[in-house]
Design goal:
Blueprint: H1 2-7, E1 12-14, E2 26-28, E3 31-37, H2 50-60, E4 66-70, H3 78-95, E5 102-107, E6 110-116, E7 137-138
Parallel strand pairs: 3-4, 4-5
Antiparallel strand pairs: 1-2, 2-3, 5-6, 6-7
Length: about 140
């Protein structure tokens, strides 16, 4: 993934893993990037599902401001990746995006991106009051 980012013109360096804190994998032009990947098709029983995409993004939200899912060779389709983004966006609306501000899925023949709307600070609702939705996701 680092080579792909360098080829796009980014200055990339790896980030040392810390035992006490979750850290991103890379620093690209000063932005923290968490990379998640799927096993290639030969190492999997079935292609990744939309839920798999959403789960990887949910996991990445505590590690970097950008998440990149590397799905080349995994069998993930563009349609399933988009469905996973939608599932993730629904969870983010409920729970928040953590550090994550953008996500990207790179698969066979597709590269899709998702930018999360900036978080708006709001007071926590009192117990029992209606939920306030977080800002939406823009495509």
């Amino acid at each position: 993934m680092a080579r792909a980012l360098v080829a796009e013109g980014h200055q990339v360096r790896s980030v040392a893993e810390q035992r006490a804190a979750r850290t991103a994998d890379l620093l690209a032009c000063g932005t923290t990037v968490e990379v998640k990947s799927f096993l290639p098709g030969g190492g999997r029983r079935k292609p990744p599902s939309p839920q798999s995409v959403a789960n990887k993004l949910l996991d990445a939200r505590g590690q970097g401001s950008v998440a990149v899912l590397w799905a080349v060779g995994s069998g993930l389709t563009q349609a399933r990746a988009r469905q996973g983004f939608a599932m993730f966006a629904a969870r983010v609306a409920e729970e928040g995006a953590g550090r994550l501000r953008a996500a990207r899925v790179i698969g066979d023949g597709f590269d899709i991106r998702l930018r999360l709307a900036p978080a708006v600070a709001a007071p926590r609702p009192a117990p029992g009051s209606p939920r306030v939705r977080a800002p939406g996701v823009t495509h």
